[in-house]
Amino acid sequence: MLTIHETMGMGILGPASVCDLRMNQVQLASLTSAGFLGIICSSYFWGYITDKKGRRWTLLRTITVSNVCSIVSMFMVDFNGFFVMRFLTGIFVAAPSFVAATYLSEFCSQRILARTLTHMYMFTGFAMLYCPAWAVLFLATKFMEFEVAVVGDLTLRPWRLLGCLNCLPGVIAFFLLLSLPESPKFLLTIGDTKRGMDAMELICRRNTGKPLSSEQIENLLMYQSVASARVRRVKGEHNFLRSMINDAMPLFRTPYVGLFMGACLVMFILGMMANGVGLWYTAMRNRYNMRQGSKKGMSFCRILFFPEMRPLIESESDFEPVCNDAFGGFNDSFILGAVYIILYNICWLTLLCMPKKRVIFVVSMLTSSTCGFLLIFVTDRWVQLFSLVFFLAIPGVVVSLMGGALCLFVPTHIRGKALCISLMWARCGAAIGTILTGSGFHNSCEISLIAIAILPLSKIEFPVPF
């Protein structure tokens, strides 16, 4: 939830801050992609650190710093300061975005891993509900309308407090992690037998109320000897950068390279659709709902970007344009969040009944592309809404499937790096999609939709680890 709030939440905070920070459309597009750019720049570094220092170790430190950077960003008074702090927030929120999945996967058996990760990613839907729920209170009601001068150009307005509330899941996660052990699988893999056994003892007592049996201890020691043999330690003759590169090399050799690269390319497309275009969902629906006059017979793009025809009124000599950062409501954002939760549960049930993930992947890509093409032609309001919702939500759900498949596909000692690199490609797609949507849809909405809707079809035959 923290990662979604700090990235997708800018789809609400960005437009709400336009007037205070005096931003144009290009600056707004850049600001909304700042978090993704930070994630892209730091993802592999955190993947390397989490495979060296530990999953819990990385999560505690990055959650703390990302929360601090996020709160500081809410008190910036110009575009440059806001952009830099959102970029720094993205750098540190990059780790929780994939380390949480790595951490959880190492407490699960292979039999339930995919379903467990699907449940974890389901909180994406709750995050999609959390953001607009607070936004209704702070941005769409008269109750919270205020403007308080603090110091200099800094004025306290509702969107700044809303941004601070986006850190709440991170604060809760931090305190929950304090009571949890480090991944025992990671500890045993790196040869830390005592801490690994202590962690397993704690888990066993919490789950069963009993200590580890002698047979379980023997099996764990046997696992450690096999897992440790896979880990090739890079000693001090290599510098830090060389060590980072060498540690990732197994992913680009057989037997992993083909399926891993295929997964990365698919993640790029999924990120462009679910996060890149998805980040503008609230702004699009707000613009849609605030359009005056009849929308009957108008396509989605025409409603958003075709100029309204109004009677010409002679301008007054003392007329001054007023910046409008109002929102017309967030009901459509609640629908997106609800659909995310429903789709994750459908995916979970499907994995129970039909373990072949390849079938789910192909059907999902075909459905998402179809919804994208429908957006170009349909004129009914509800068909337009749900076509857009499924066009964005289905790729987001497939990301969780891909993450679970990668956790099963690669061994423990390179699992963190595999997830971070694949999600880095997804964030690259998100950053590019965000900028293209913010700056390109206005001039060529239909062409942009066709281009993005075709992309999933081109990836159906790609080799992926299903």
Q: Which labels suit this protein?
A:
two-stranded antiparallel ribbon, 466 residues, globular, mainly alpha, 22 helices
What does the secondary structure layout of this molecule look like, with pairings?
Layout (H helix, E strand, L loop, with lengths): L1 H6 L2 H7 L1 H4 L3 H29 L1 H19 L5 H27 L4 H12 L1 H17 L8 E4 L2 E3 L1 H8 L2 H10 L6 H6 L3 H16 L5 H17 L9 H9 L8 H21 L3 H10 L9 H6 L25 H23 L3 H21 L3 H29 L5 H26 L4 H14 L8
Antiparallel strand pairs: 1-2
Describe this structure in words.
By secondary structure, this protein is an all-alpha fold. Helices cover 72% and strands 2% of the residues. The protein is built from 22 helices and two strands. The protein has helices at residues 2-7, 10-16, 18-21, 25-53, 55-73, 79-105, 110-121, 123-139, 158-165, 168-177, 184-189, 193-208, 214-230, 240-248, 257-277, 281-290, 300-305, 331-353, 357-377, 381-409, 415-440, 445-458; strands spanning 148-151, 154-156. A two-stranded antiparallel sheet has the order 1-2. A hairpin with a 2-residue loop joins strand 1 (148-151) and strand 2. Helix 5 packs antiparallel against helix 6, helix 7 packs antiparallel against helix 18 (331-353) and helix 15 (257-277) packs parallel to helix 21. The longest helix is centred in the N-terminal third of the chain and has 29 residues, at 25-53. It is globular and about 75 Å long. The two termini are 26 Å apart. The model is unreliable at 233-237 and 309-321 (pLDDT under 50).
